[in-house]
UniProtKB/TrEMBL annotation:
<keyword id="KW-0812">Transmembrane</keyword>
<keyword id="KW-0328">Glycosyltransferase</keyword>
<dbReference type="GO" id="GO:0016020">
    <property type="term" value="C:membrane"/>
</dbReference>
<keyword id="KW-0472">Membrane</keyword>
<dbReference type="GO" id="GO:0016757">
    <property type="term" value="F:glycosyltransferase activity"/>
</dbReference>
<comment type="pathway">
    <text>Glycan metabolism.</text>
</comment>
<keyword id="KW-0119">Carbohydrate metabolism</keyword>
<keyword id="KW-1133">Transmembrane helix</keyword>
<dbReference type="InterPro" id="IPR019378">
    <property type="entry name" value="GDP-Fuc_O-FucTrfase"/>
</dbReference>
<keyword id="KW-0325">Glycoprotein</keyword>
<dbReference type="Pfam" id="PF10250">
    <property type="entry name" value="O-FucT"/>
</dbReference>
<dbReference type="GO" id="GO:0005737">
    <property type="term" value="C:cytoplasm"/>
</dbReference>
<keyword id="KW-0294">Fucose metabolism</keyword>
<keyword id="KW-0808">Transferase</keyword>
<keyword id="KW-0735">Signal-anchor</keyword>
<protein>
    <recommendedName>
        <fullName>O-fucosyltransferase family protein</fullName>
    </recommendedName>
</protein>
<dbReference type="InterPro" id="IPR024709">
    <property type="entry name" value="FucosylTrfase_pln"/>
</dbReference>
Length: 508
């Protein structure tokens, strides 16, 4: 029985072996098919990767390779027809911005800045901060704009200026980042940085000797006030030139602001020449300056209360009449109407008001609108829907007025604030476009004499014309007053180092 059992066992084993071999064969075939599928999938992925890469570089050598391939879904006849159409239709010419080469330098640290004031005060400050960053070899973070001033404008830098153009157009001078790198940002979040206001009207040596050591020590420096922090005069020519480059080439408004500004200018141009009147007679300016000429007692009290409500407006007790006599008040709408008439501004001239809401409204504007019926504003030239996204954004509204002011036939500011000065300098840079720089001290004296009949109209007009013959924005040298930089001519009002006719400068 033993041998039978052995034979039966051998047969069973043979049968089992055959079954195992039969089961193993499909498994091996499945593995082979899987390998083949993986090879095919990998090959497909690699081929598509190559196609994508070739398409990406198609502008360089693609026309010779990719564009020569026949289409898989078009017939030869279709190809011939397409070629004929392509030959008949010229290819569009696309202007590509030529970027300057990146400037390579050893980075000494990071500079963060918080600008203060209105649009044009911040604009000049941004130019100064770029210069400072460049000459300290530090990385500048896109400036933070003031959101706590009287206007409470929540606009960010990129809401007003073309931030990409700002960064790339200056890359050969200074590295500018939208925000700090993550590692450095974490340091700042933990308070590992230094914050301070720099000294006003300083030359570049102050920043090399006092500010640079702080940046090297802390790696991140935050300048929390930026107005008038760089001197007007006594700076190297390359610094002055860079200030101009930033102001006139790199600080470009957003496309939305630019397009709307162009539309306002087109509307004005359709109706002939126009004068931009920067009538600085808004409530905030009157409260700040303490000027109440022509206001009622109730209005004067409102302005005084407003002045006391803002602690950073240091001057509180103000003699309005004395300040006006010294030429330190903005001209009133009534005074402005007399001046424009005396200077022979044509009655039919369009007068574009570049300003906010005039204090006193239609009542205070009545004399001006009677003398010049074509008084307009952006709000009267555009539809409400056009300005919908600009409402409650005073800096963006001011940017529109800035663009229109640059293109006007005549620009007349009634007060020498930041917008008046920066626009004046920009118009000089554009070819000394006519800007009437009013002598307010003389004007109020002559206006008072005319109003009390001490001067006849022809005398009044003749004296005003004579006084302003050389105050039209022509080439002149900046006035330098040693140790009194606030009283000397402002660099951005007359950037003489950057002007075409600098060799023809004369002292005004």
């Amino acid at each position: 029985m033993g041998w039978k059992a052995a034979m039966v066992g051998g047969k069973l084993a043979g049968v089992g072996g055959e079954k195992l071999r039969c089961a193993a064969a499909p498994a091996a075939a499945a593995r082979s098919r899987m390998k083949l599928w993986m090879v095919r999938a990998t090959t497909t992925v690699l081929l598509w990767t190559c196609v994508v890469q070739l398409t990406a570089v198609g502008d360089t050598w693609g026309p010779r390779v990719l564009k020569g391939w026949p289409s898989c879904i078009t017939s030869p006849d279709d190809d011939a027809a397409s070629a004929t159409l392509a030959a008949a239709r010229p290819e569009p010419v696309v202007d590509k911005a030529v970027l300057p080469p990146k400037r390579i330098y050893r980075n000494n640290g990071y500079l963060m800045v918080s600008c203060n004031g209105g649009l044009n005060q911040m604009r000049a400050a941004i130019c100064d901060m770029v210069v400072i960053a460049r000459y300290l070899n530090v990385t500048l973070v896109v400036p933070e704009l003031d959101k706590t001033s009287f206007w409470n404008d929540p606009s960010e830098f990129q809401d007003i200026f073309d931030v990409e153009h700002f960064i790339t157009s200056l890359r050969d001078e200074v590295r500018i980042l939208r925000e700090l790198p993550p590692r450095v940002k974490r340091r700042v979040e933990h308070g590992m940085y230094h914050s301070m206001p720099p000294i006003s009207w300083s030359d570049i040596s102050y920043y090399h000797n006092q500010i640079l050591p702080l940046i090297r020590k802390y790696k991140v420096l935050h300048l929390n006030r930026t107005d008038a922090r760089l001197a007007n005069n006594g700076l190297p020519m390359e610094i002055q030139k860079l200030r101009c480059r930033v102001n006139y080439a790199s600080l470009r408004f957003t496309s939305q602001i630019e397009e709307l500004g162009k539309r306002v200018i087109r509307i004005l141009r359709q109706n002939g020449p126009f004068l931009v009147l920067h009538l600085r007679y808004e409530m905030d300016m009157l409260a700040f300056s303490g000027c109440t000429q022509g206001c009622s007692n109730e209005e004067a009290d409102d302005l005084t209360r407003m002045r006391y409500a803002y602690p950073w407006w240091k001057e509180k007790i103000i003699n309005s009449e004395l300040k006006r006599k010294d030429g330190l008040c903005p001209l009133t709408p009534e005074e402005t109407a007399l001046v424009l008439r005396a200077l022979d501004i044509d009655r039919s001239m369009q007068i574009y008001i570049a300003a906010g809401e005039i204090y006193g409204g239609k009542r205070r504007m009545s004399t001006l609108t009677s003398a010049y019926p074509n008084v307009v504003r952006k709000e009267t030239l555009l539809e409400p829907s056009d300005l919908m996204f600009f409402q409650n954004h005073s800096s963006q509204m001011a940017a529109l007025d800035y663009l229109v002011s640059l293109e006007s036939d005549i620009f007349v500011p009634t007060y020498d604030g930041n917008m008046a000065k920066v626009v004046e300098g920009h118009r000089r840079y554009m070819g000394f476009k006519k800007t009437i720089l009013l002598d307010r001290k003389l004007i109020v004296e002559l206006v008072d004499q005319y109003n009390n009949s001490s001067l006849r109209w022809d005398e009044f007009s003749l004296m005003l014309k004579a006084a302003h013959a050389n105050r039209m924005g022509s080439a002149s040298k900046r006035t330098v007053i040693l140790d009194r930089p606030k009283e000397e001519d402002y660099f951005y009002a007359n950037p003489q180092e950057c002007l075409q006719d600098s060799n023809l400068l004369h002292t005004s």
